[in-house]
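Recap quiz, item 2
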Amino acid sequence: MLTQGATRPLGLSDVAARAGVSLQTVSRVVNHHPNVAAATRERVLRAIAELGYRPNTAARALVTGSSRAIGLVATHINQYGPAQTLLGLEQAARSAGYSLGVTILDENSASAMRDAVDRLVAQSVDAVVALSTYGKAVDALRRFVAPVPLIAVQVGRGEDHPTVWVDQELGAELATRHLLELGHRTVHHVSGPVDSLEARGRLRGWRRELVRAGAPVPEPIEGDWTAAAGHAVGRRLAAARLRGEDVTAVFLANDQMALGLLNALHGEGISVPGQVSVVGFDDVPEAAFYTPPLTTVRQDFAELGRRGVELVLCRLNGAVRELEPVQPLLVVRDSTGPASRT
Amino acid sequence: MLTQGATRPLGLSDVAARAGVSLQTVSRVVNHHPNVAAATRERVLRAIAELGYRPNTAARALVTGSSRAIGLVATHINQYGPAQTLLGLEQAARSAGYSLGVTILDENSASAMRDAVDRLVAQSVDAVVALSTYGKAVDALRRFVAPVPLIAVQVGRGEDHPTVWVDQELGAELATRHLLELGHRTVHHVSGPVDSLEARGRLRGWRRELVRAGAPVPEPIEGDWTAAAGHAVGRRLAAARLRGEDVTAVFLANDQMALGLLNALHGEGISVPGQVSVVGFDDVPEAAFYTPPLTTVRQDFAELGRRGVELVLCRLNGAVRELEPVQPLLVVRDSTGPASRT
DNA sequence: CAGGGAGATGTTAGCGCTAACAAGCCCGCC
DNA sequence: GGCGGGCTTGTTAGCGCTAACATCTCCCTG
């Protein structure tokens, strides 16, 4: 029916001819205009089905100036969180009748961001969603005056554009408090790259909770989200323990780094959670199967994508809406335990 | 320069007026036609830069019938492999001047696949790339007569469409042989879902290698790519060992499942590689930090994406080209060791 | 029963761009 | 010196669709 050879020059006029109506009437049916007689609509619909007609989006975009497409500017799409958000985004967009154009930023510069948005705009997308972008690229995003609505997802709380975000600070507080309540004197932190707004949020939450509890605030260690970084930190912390430093609890800004840390500690013969408790962030599906299963903070990434689309749709209707941040959730597994006074 | 307020009604005619030439000449400059005087081209280029003109892709698509866009139909984009391939794909497409439209298949049915391709075609993409799709959806793909070139990436060796693929059988053989050479009498296999062509390829390679070596071929166990599945299998194999069965080597069709298995074996007090050797597949970045670091088979996913675009470009030029499969690579780490005769 | 209004349908004019053709120009050649 | 041919530029006609306006028909109201 739909796959009918390589010929596909069907237009409104073909349908119109077949249904015995004018081209405009077909257009009305296709666009669900109210003022079409039921019988006529029926006839047109049948003709459309028989012919396998599909409207030409390019023509429509040309005349309406809108393509019913959303452009996505993303980085780190190969990581669990962003990928999951992409999934939510695509699904929500699709069910709202929008298609998704994707551009990857392979550099965190302001110019790369400008180019990306520009490229998307040239494709006449109706809105642009920026997904977990970083550093300079985010700066470019703020006070960016694009000809279309610009929505930021997971780039921290936006100031100049509508934003959808998970409450990173809360998540970090949850993690830190959990460790403190277990009796640890303080909690060390391995952050993400500091030019990431998410990383900064987690860092803030961690620090705030320590301060609130009156616990000492150790110097945070900057990681780069990779397991390798976590591994390096693990060896470093193990050495610090040997020097007699008080390292019994570590909160890492994502699960990959936590995995690396776990691996390093295991290699150094330090037991988790016996000697050191570890908390990650994200709750990747594998976290439950790390050795030991990782206590971590769950984020609903797909929800983020859905809300992003929701915000886009609101904006397109002229409504300006602020959304509540998504609440993260602490998932306690086996990598955390009571502080052992040795 | 590019961000110049919310107004953006610039057209060829604006540029033409500014440069003092006809609209068509501007079009020629934009499209790199050869027959434009150098001085004129210069003048037009300047006008374009000054005005910040960007061609309207919808209009261009309408008149040329081509949008310089590639459509991607994908599933499992939240997993490492496909996500990585997406990255390669997008980058290659972009540097060839193509944009990427993404559609996710949320169901492996033939009709979902048809809808997805149809949706993409309606957006007048120039070609469709199907990325690691499954079961019925793949069946629909074969002998699918689309109005645009259709390229399959990572869906096994294609019969009706040009295909880019990693030699899964070879990878599985590598893994199996490695274990056999370590002195294991046989190798157990945890496969992916059998409606996945990749899973089937790995299964075939594993079986072939066992047969070649004259080793017994145990019943393969079907998994679903998740760590949870690997965990379940781990418990099952541990029980089998207790019953005296000869389980000393396991090859799993991906790293996530291997992680689950590792976790289960650890929980059962079975040492890896002391008592059981484990090999995964994919070499996700975390595999080097599993406990113990996982021996696995590396696939170059990004290369797959690049080749996909290459094939699209060839096809668009009318050339039909067959590409060699990408070679996988065995990465030996610490989860495999010599068989211990107990 | 005339007038008006609402609903149904048709007609027209582009959206911004490119392909095809047309026109002018300069050059070299016989 | 006239003329053909290549180079450069301009003109025209849509691509397939929708918005705005024009019609026409019917039915209801006073």
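Confidence is low (pLDDT under 50) at residues 1-6 of chain B.
The first strand of chain B starts at residue 69 and ends at 74.
End of item.
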